[in-house]
Amino acid sequence: MPRLVDHELRRRQITSAVRRLIVRGGLDAVTFQSVAVEAGFSVSLVQYYCGTKKDLLLATHRSVMENVGTRFAQRWTALGEVMPREAIHAVLTELLPLDEQRREETIVLGAFGTGSVTGQGITPEETLTASNLLVSILADQLRRAPQLEPPVNRIELVAELIAAAIAGIAQGMIQGHGTAELALELVDQQLDLVLGKRN
Amino acid sequence: MPRLVDHELRRRQITSAVRRLIVRGGLDAVTFQSVAVEAGFSVSLVQYYCGTKKDLLLATHRSVMENVGTRFAQRWTALGEVMPREAIHAVLTELLPLDEQRREETIVLGAFGTGSVTGQGITPEETLTASNLLVSILADQLRRAPQLEPPVNRIELVAELIAAAIAGIAQGMIQGHGTAELALELVDQQLDLVLGKRN
Q1: Structure pTM?
Q2: Cα–Cα distances in Å, from B132 out to A19, A43, A178, A192, B156?
Q3: Does the CB of B31 have a partner CB in chain A at under 8 Å?
Q4: Which of A125, A177, A181, A189 is the best substitution to test chain B (most B C-beta atoms within 10 A)?
Q5: What pLDDT digit, counting tens, does each position of B107-146 carry?
Q6: Chains A and B: how many Cβ contacts under 8 Å?
Q7: Which ipTM score applies to this complex?
Q8: B110 touches chain A (CB under 8 A)
């Protein structure tokens, strides 16, 4: 019986190769040739799965989003019933480059964000879903918070602010501005300001 | 009498061309050939002023920093004696892409930040001076604030947080996440959290 090709695995090998190329050389380092070499496939096999460079980038962006989403869901289940502060803290630290995988994700998403402005492959609309989702998760948790400092009608705005801050903290961290320790202190400081000081 | 070449002007024409190229196509769009075409000079003239691609990028990064610095200084002088909140607000809005020039600066600095991680031309150290300077300006103003919410020993941390947030807000804005109006509301919200609600 012929062995079935595992398409999912092949796709993952291709998008993993694209991520590594972006980390080493930015979005412009991604070509069918470089992806084929990095993944150990032929150019035509890569093209079979992703017909255009835009397909390659979109598949890679989607794969990062799926990884983050899966990790979020696992973390969420493991948390169980927790206070809003703890939930928000968990969500935010998942987005900090505190290990190799998250560091790779932060770099790749940063490159996609910058590239969407300078016209390299994918559009701003294609990168926005995740940040809108983050804002709505944060707002849901803020609504549950009893000791909320800002008036309730500012919750969406505060959620937007926390999302912007974590993006700045994560990009600052990979760009060498501050350690993991500082990043975690900044997250706590932001939550102190929003939810009141921890005990 | 032979007309003296205005070296400063030539340099500025070259770095302006580099900025426009980055906005349209990212750091990889910058080559001696493309800069020469964009600036209307010969390749050898561009090379006379900037011998390597790294020189080109460093000169451009420096020119953006000088523009921002000059604008800061002018704004600062025009402000005169103001409350810390107003001073911080002025500093932060200078960093938001609220007009064409600041939009170009935000895109170019974003590309440099991302590129410093993915190895495209300049190193993180070369991009850090500005963000350290910003943190120290913010901390100085926070120390003057009478109604400061966070304890005094957290001033440096709060200054870091405000700097990270404005970076996230500015990059979010150029990446299509939110309008100028939202960005300004986020700045006010962050200042409300740090310095207490406005009257």
Answers
A1: 0.91
A2: 30, 45, 10, 23, 11
A3: no
A4: A177
A5: 999 999 999 999 887 876 777 777 888 999 999 999 988 7
A6: 162
A7: 0.90
A8: yes
